[in-house]
Write a structure and sequence with these properties.
31% of the residues lie in helices and 24% in strands. The protein has 181 residues and is an alpha/beta fold. The chain has a single domain, classed as von Willebrand factor, type A domain (Rossmann fold, 3-Layer(aba) Sandwich), CATH 3.40.50. Strands 3-2-1-4-5-6 form a 6-stranded mixed beta sheet, sandwiched between helices. A hairpin with a 2-residue loop joins strand 2 and strand 3. Helix 1 runs antiparallel to helix 2.
Length: 181
């Protein structure tokens, strides 16, 4: 450039500030009635609040799917993390059935379409559940790294979340390992 004037075509082309691809965090929250037991959902809300803050600081995009009642429901689909999520989190309550398998199927379809639109985007899955599902035969393939946080508590634990994590090829952690204590 000469005194701020472009000399070459490359001088006027738009250059992205960052070369690293965007990140998308897909969060699936099991908010069925069974998650009310032993303060499981309340503790999960604390972890989710921290996650939303981290996503905001890291400029990650979020997709948030709630599994409760009769059918899963999208709260956010691929938007930048914002303070509006705090309001949703404060109002999150548990109840109804566990449409977690339907949520996983919906998430798999949505991720596949998103990967076609944004092939360079790095996607990650966070599944928060107590694993209290009826029997399942086949789980949908979710083509991204994942972490399952088991929020099952109480004297009798079924331990289905470990099996679910293994079948989803996701890492497994129990919420008690993640809470300051």
């Amino acid at each position: 450039m000469l005194n701020g004037r472009p000399r070459l075509r490359a001088d006027v082309l738009f250059h992205l500030r960052t070369r690293s691809p965007h990140e998308l965090w897909l969060v699936i929250v099991d908010a069925s009635a069974s998650t009310r037991r032993h303060q499981a959902l309340s503790d999960a809300k604390g972890l989710l609040a921290q996650l939303f803050d981290d996503a905001y600081r890291q400029r990650a995009r979020l997709a948030l799917l709630t599994a409760s009642g009769a059918a899963p429901k999208w709260q956010v689909q691929g938007l930048k993390a914002s303070s509006g999520l705090r309001h949703w989190l404060d109002g999150l309550g548990a109840g109804g059935g566990t449409p977690l398998l339907a949520a996983l199927g919906e998430a798999g379809r949505w991720l596949a379409a998103r990967q076609k639109r944004f092939p360079a985007e790095r996607q990650r899955l966070l599944l928060v559940t107590d694993g209290r599902l009826k029997d399942w035969l086949v789980l949908p393939a979710l083509d991204c790294p994942g972490l399952l946080i088991d929020i099952e508590r109480g004297p009798i634990r079924l331990g289905r979340s470990k099996v679910l994590a293994a079948q989803l090829q996701a890492d497994y952690r129990h919420i008690d390992e993640l809470l300051p204590g």
